[in-house]
TrEMBL record:
Family: Belongs to the TGF-beta family.
Residues passing through the membrane, by range: none
Compartment list: Secreted
Organism: Chrysemys picta bellii
Pfam families the record matches: TGFb_propeptide (PF00688)
PANTHER family given in the database record: TGF-BETA FAMILY, TRANSFORMING GROWTH FACTOR BETA-1 PROPROTEIN
GO molecular function: cytokine activity; growth factor activity
UniProt keywords, alphabetically: Disulfide bond, Glycoprotein, Growth factor, Secreted, Signal
Main localisation: secreted
Endpoints of the signal sequence: 1-23
Protein's GO biological process: regulation of cell population proliferation; transforming growth factor beta receptor signaling pathway
Protein name: TGF-beta propeptide domain-containing protein
Length: 138
């Protein structure tokens, strides 16, 4: 009988702890939708205060007026979008993409001879010439 009391005792102890934790919990659950709505309202209030407005401006015609764009704006947008697509296609077809590191450095290296090479090995005096030395350039 002593062995059967051990698991029963542990079960009752766990049940007691669960009941005690529920009794001590006085916090209400958080409604995340309510928090989200309050946050949006606070942000709207901040925007209105920065614009020095008491309430949102009233737009004539409602939201439908905001959705209509002039024909010139739409044609400009469409032509720009098509031009960008064509440029991307040309770049992809023309050559493989380079890494950003390869794009950073120059593609061509030029060698400049700053002093005429004399067979005797003598050069002018240092006061008369400027020498720029580049090493490692081929």
């Amino acid at each position: 009988m002593g062995q059967a009391m051990g698991p029963l005792f542990l079960f009752l102890l766990a049940l007691l702890r669960l009941w005690a934790s529920q009794a001590l919990s006085t916090c209400k659950t958080i409604d995340m939708e309510l928090v989200k709505r309050k946050r949006i309202e606070a942000i709207r209030g901040q925007i209105l205060s920065k614009l020095r407005l008491d309430s949102p401006p009233q737009v004539e015609g409602g939201d439908a007026a905001l959705l209509r764009l002039p024909e010139e704006v739409m044609s400009l947008y469409n032509s720009t979008r098509d031009m960008v697509r064509d440029m991307v296609r040309q770049q992809e077809a023309g050559k493989p993409r380079e890494s950003p590191q390869d794009e950073y450095y120059a593609k061509e290296v030029h060698k400049f001879s700053m002093l005429p090479h004399s067979p005797s090995g003598s050069a002018r005096s240092p006061q008369q010439c400027a020498i720029l030395g580049f090493t490692g350039i081929q």
